[in-house]
Here is the input.
Amino acid sequence: MKLQEDIIRLILGLKIKQLRIEKGISLTDLAAATEISVSYLNEIEKGKKHPKPSKIATIADALGVTYDSLVSLQLSKRLQPVGELLHSNILSELPLEHFGLDLSRLIDIFATAPAKLSAFIKTLLEISRAFDLRVEQFYFSALRSYQELHENYFEDIESEAETFLVTHGLDPEFTPTLPQLTDLLRNGYGIETELATFEDQPALKPLRTVFIPGTSPKLLLNAALTEQQQAFAMARELGFQHLKLELRPYTSTWVKVTSFEEVLNNFRASYFAGALLLNRDRLVQDLQHFFALPTWQPEFLLQLMDTYKASPETLLHRITSLLPRFFNIKQLFFLRFNHQPGTQHYSLTKELHLAGLHNPHASLLSEHYCRRWISLTLFEVMANLPNGGPIVGAQRSNYINSDNEYLVIALAHPSERASETVSIGLLLNENLRRKVKFLQDPAILHRMVNETCERCPALDCLERAAPPVILQKQQWQQQVNEVLQQLQKPATQV
Here is the structure.
């Protein structure tokens, strides 16, 4: 928000409303006393309008206060916590408009019980500091919520990708090639592409791409990227240019995050890239064919990767966009895991949960994720095939102490650059059973799984990586509560 102007309007509106309520004056009464319409006064109180000085003086007289006290940015003790909130950068960090929230309505809620709500906000901030939650983590969490709110499908970007294909004479039946993408950047936007080893700038070696703006813009692609990753990076750059997204990152992977708008624009450009490389209509037809197969055929997914020249992550993430809209498969998750070779540490580096939060999720940062997940067992397969091609795995996962069961499909592509798996999990329900014909194929492994070893009651699990310390603590707490309840009962009830 335009901070100073918005703060002035909001504080004036809060003070007028608070004074009016304290004096028992209705909006209608104030309108009659000031000869200002009720609707305009309402806009003033919500912080949407800032009246002329003459009208402010009239309102001050009607409320029995001085003009100076009304226009001052000083707030009463009751509203002081709200003032602190307004002057902090918290509200400017919140991407309210992307969630259909109105700032004035939010402030109105704060004003109703300012002390309690401000204390609640401060508590959240203290928790975030205690767990070292950085601003960029908040932004990415907000982005996930934004995607989930829209079921990860954005018709406007789909239409833009189709318009782009038509404008540039590209056949949607064929995936754009690297030379085509290179020509589109050069001829359409004057951007040159270049493979870079970053030998002279070793600090840049972990980055996938670097965009250098200016009169002769250039997109540097890390020479270690696969052809599929290069294609996605160039298609994403086309997204930035075609969608005219000016506030954007200039590197991939992220180095510094400055705003939610930057994060959102990067997502929009990435979504455009997926829509450009994996045409919606073609992929929907291919998925219909895949789900109609009577048996589990992992080769089909490998063929899709080859047909669309897509990396495992690009393919599965694109599928999560289409399943809710075209197959009514809405209860699903997407996960990306990284593994540091030679260690037992697995990091959940990307996640998306549609139709509610499904297990697993990344809030369990210090715990050991269940080693029975196909997402993790695929790392063992990769360890034996360091130079092999893409790997596909499938599993039906039943969560211990839960009725939930998921069909989980995982993909990985071994490389020297990184050890990574991506997977999608589809909740088994009647809709999925009707659509996916190969669900009962015995080739798909069935396994009992849990969230983490620390929470798991399966004490005989051969894959256990840590004792169930959190589960044991929860059980102890329950036992203590039961004993205390017994002790507190009257003697006649014992």
In short: The first strand starts at residue 192 and ends at 196.
